């Protein structure tokens, strides 16, 4: 799940946002920390402005690939 927060200026300032998470356990994609567990409801997330907030549900498969250049 992606929860973008787009602001034109002050990209280094942190802010707090409320994000709705459906029922399950959710983790921050970047640091692996648990951000929400249990019933579906909103949770408070601290984030930097202009940061792509990505959350992954427990027991899911999320494939990634390194950037590759083709000829």
Automatic annotation (TrEMBL):
Domain of life per record:
Eukaryota
Official protein name in the record: Uncharacterized protein
* Classification of source organism: Eukaryota, Metazoa, Ecdysozoa, Arthropoda, Crustacea
